[in-house]
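2024-03-11 09:14:02 INFO receiving multi-entity request
2024-03-11 09:14:02 INFO entity count = three
2024-03-11 09:14:03 INFO echoing inputs for audit
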Amino acid sequence: MTRSESYKLIWAVVRRIPRGKVATYGQVAALAGFTRQPRLAGHALGQTPDGMKLPWYRVINAQGKISLPPNTKGAREQRRLLADEGVAFMRGRVDLERYRWRPRSEAPLLD
DNA sequence: TGCTTGACCGACG
DNA sequence: ACGTCGGCCAAGC
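2024-03-11 09:21:47 INFO inference complete, emitting structure
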């Protein structure tokens, strides 16, 4: 399994997160078959090619917070895009109980 | 080649 | 509800 292959699996999962829902890095990694490697999901998003259509902003950390450095363009954009989809922030965090994506299948997702 | 950093997480105080 | 710690491992220098 090469890195680019791993990233493709991660991206495939991220593409399935529905509008108005969010997933955590750990959740995305596990669904792609990489349990206990949440950082792999972060790396995959960081390596997303420009122009690739991907709802990267629907991935947040397990604390319900945006993981991009605060007060950066990316962090503000992520918050705005989520707000546009109706995902509400309270005290700088998303209520995961309410907005977390709950897929039917737990098997690794392919394209 | 080695070492540090980090779009992380769960367990435990 | 925080802070710390160990596990994890690709990136970047």
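2024-03-11 09:21:48 INFO post-check: The longest helix of chain A spans residues 3-15.
2024-03-11 09:21:48 INFO post-check: Residues 45 and 56 of chain A are 7 Å apart (CA to CA).
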